[in-house]
Amino acid sequence: MDDVQVVALEFRLFKFKPAVYDFLIPLTESSFYRLDNDTLSEVEQMVGNSDKHITRVLFCGPYFAASHQYTKEYLQKYPFIQVDDVPFAVVPDVISNYNICIVKNMQLTSNIISRATQMKLIMQFGVGLEGVDIDAATKYGIKVARIPGDATGNAASCAEMAIYLMLGLLRKQNEMQISIKQKRLGEPAGETLLGKTVFIMGFGNIGIDLAKRLRPFGVKIIATKRSWALHSEGSLQSDGFLIENGTNDNLVDEKGSHEDIYKFAGVSDIVVCCLSMNKETAGIVNKSFISSMKKGSLLVNIARGGLLDYDAVVHHLESGHLGGLGIDVAWTEPFDPDDPILKFNNVIISPHVAGVTEHSYRFMSKVVGDVALQLHSGNPLTGIEIVN
């Protein structure tokens, strides 16, 4: 393969350097669900057949690089599937050339979608679709889909990050680094998760996985969600966690609805935001909400930055009412490394990596790859949740 592969996109030329990812863990059939035999048979027959059309997959922007890198690797033996990662500014000019769009964290507006004349499917590399104008996509006959987090390991990865942020705040991670630099031993005195009350705000797939993992820490778990309808019966989940009476609801000591969020915040030591981002939830963690939290309690957000009101968070950090902030998502991304919120020792920020694990990204790359193969062969799309 040449050092530089020149790909003609509409009226421009863009250069993409092929990369070799020797360090990546090989995919195995046992690690993921298998593509159905009919689709696999059809696409295998297409390999090397230059008469077949090309199905083109567009990844928007440079961030979350493993998403397009792993997908390219998974599809490298299928020359009739072309995978490109394109800068944000270029997307509107080239989107008409593509059949599938992986939006990631780009705002896909009605204007941009109207140019996608060959587009069949818009997908999120994960769950959140708040950046996609779904009504516009529906108008232009384009399907919009997410990758369910419970099946891919994305929810589990996010749940683990939530625990990481909790422990980092409780054990005073930033102050420990100061102690190391100053050669002080036995400082700071931290806290345990043991005995704490954790409020999971939004008991969806991530909230469920978080509750499962919190149980062994000896915490009280309270949670809110829209509906507490029972799940299907069964005593053992696919991930090996035992669920009493066949329902995830029994993971929670006290259940509430949206009307209970202030009450629950007032009795919690830690509040974890696991909500979806929409018009109703934007800025839901505002001045009134944080004021209702116990003085010195911790706030963790692994969902979307817009759930938290920035000014309210800063105000309550300055006053000392908020005992600590741990966020994997921010109000603007990438986050400004000079933002004044980082001056607080009780603030931990990670660069939107909660779901970015080898396990989840390998799985989601396979889902994207399989969907591209299914679309190319004309077979039904599996492994995704179509929302329109």
Topology:
Blueprint: E1 5-9, E2 12-16, H1 37-46, E3 55-60, H2 65-74, E4 81-86, H3 91-94, E5 100-102, H4 110-114, E6 121-123, H5 134-139, E7 143-146, H6 149-152, H7 154-170, H8 173-181, E8 197-201, H9 205-214, E9 220-224, E10 254-256, H10 261-266, E11 270-273, H11 287-292, E12 298-301, H12 310-319, E13 324-327, E14 347-349, H13 358-377, E15 385-386
Parallel strand pairs: 3-4, 3-5, 5-6, 6-7, 8-9, 8-11, 9-10, 11-12, 12-13, 13-14
Antiparallel strand pairs: 1-2, 7-15
Outline the structure in words.
There is one protein chain. The two termini are 40 Å apart. Helix 4 links the parallel strand 5 and strand 6. Helix 1 crosses helix 13, helix 2 (65-74) packs across helix 13 (358-377) and helix 7 packs across helix 9 (205-214). The chain is 30% helix and 16% strand. It contains 13 helices and 15 strands. The chain is α/β, with parallel strands linked by helices and 388 residues long. The radius of gyration is 23 Å and the shape is elongated. Strands 10-9-8-11-12-13-14 form a seven-stranded parallel sheet. Strands 4-3-5-6-7-15 form a six-stranded mixed sheet. The protein has a two-stranded antiparallel ribbon with strand order 1-2.
Summarize the structure in short.
The protein has helices at 37-46, 65-74, 91-94, 110-114, 134-139, 149-152, 154-170, 173-181, 205-214, 261-266, 287-292, 310-319, 358-377, and strands at residues 5-9, 12-16, 55-60, 81-86, 100-102, 121-123, 143-146, 197-201, 220-224, 254-256, 270-273, 298-301, 324-327, 347-349, 385-386. It is an alpha/beta fold and 388 residues long.
